[in-house]
Amino acid sequence: MKVSTKGRYALQMMLDLAIYNTGEPISLKDIAKRQDISEKYLEQIISILNKAGYVRSIRGPQGGYFLSKSPQEYTVGMILRQTEGDLAPVACVGTENPGCEKIEECVTVKIWQKINDAVNDVIDNITLADLVEWQEEKANNYSI
Amino acid sequence: MKVSTKGRYALQMMLDLAIYNTGEPISLKDIAKRQDISEKYLEQIISILNKAGYVRSIRGPQGGYFLSKSPQEYTVGMILRQTEGDLAPVACVGTENPGCEKIEECVTVKIWQKINDAVNDVIDNITLADLVEWQEEKANNYSI
DNA sequence: ATAATTCATAGGAATGTGGTAGGAAATAAA
DNA sequence: TTTATTTCCTACCACATTCCTATGAATTAT
């Protein structure tokens, strides 16, 4: 019942891109350094976000990545689903696998459905902009 | 972000014990047959529940298992936590591992905390008695 | 005694996780 | 035009976890 590093790193990258956005592209090298994560591993993860159209890339020296849209247009759910896939606690209540043949007689499915709804309610109601705001609040608290 | 078969089977077994309770011990063989799960695998799982004191066992012919307490005294959370461990989406918000060293500066932890709370709210407010009730409702609907 | 059951432990195939490695392609800067 | 920097692509791999199977011992009703 864990979110893997893939999803967590994806979130951290998107947040990094949102926070350090200056109009110039941000290189993976910088992100990897700031977030203290293997650059090579981040390559693979951001490639998913790139193909999903969540970031734009520029190659060559001084190249790097941007967010395609503004932070409030990305929910945590969007980012996690791209990288983690469905967050359903069991396959049968997810959108990816069509559910099992015992679905009608199965009682526990009601539990999984409730968990699924609760999780989705959380992740679909937090945007990248919220994270940026929280980050800034933390920064302020530290400087006081 | 999945609940493994261990936790799901544990839940099904506890539910089976609750539903088919007649005062006589219920053998794993019967449960395995009804739930269509490998008996040998169920042995390992129920051993956890046994050590936790959630079921009582009787060895030998006509032996088997009982629930130690009445169904409304078990929450889904109790059962899942015994078998799955912590259901926290990341280790740092769980009760098992003490959290990482970046916890103070980390923003995403707020997300994981909210997910954790939401999941716990669901699983700690459903009892085995609820599942039994749902099961009976389903049975009635089918017979109509 | 016998047979049915739980209990304990070992093993193992398949899959997923969390990366590393190597190099090709693009491109800005020298 | 060369060089260095960056993204892009694919392959590989070690380790852990999951989901069992197998073997046999211990217990006990019949």
Count of discrete structural domains of chain A: 1
Sequence of secondary-structure elements of chain A: HHHEEHHH
CATH class of chain A: Mainly Alpha
Compute the CA-based radius of gyration of chain A: 18 Å
| Terminal CA distance of chain A | 38 Å
Shape of chain A: elongated
In CATH, the homologous superfamily of chain A goes by the name: Winged helix-like DNA-binding domain superfamily/Winged helix DNA-binding domain
What is the fold named in CATH at topology level of chain A? Arc Repressor Mutant, subunit A
Going by CATH, the architecture of chain A would be: Orthogonal Bundle
- Helix run count of chain A: 6
Percent in strands of chain A = 5-15%
Poorly predicted parts of chain A: none
Total number of strands of chain A: 2
Helical content of chain A stands at 40-55%
Q: Mean pLDDT of chain A, rounded to whole units?
A: 95
What's the main sheet of chain A like? Answer: 2 strands, antiparallel
Please give the structural blueprint.
2 copies of one chain form a homodimer.
Chain A: H1 5-19, H2 28-35, H3 39-51, E1 55-58, E2 64-67, H4 76-84, H5 109-123, H6 128-143
Antiparallel strand pairs in A: 1-2
Chain A binds a DNA duplex (30 and 30 nucleotides) through helix 3.
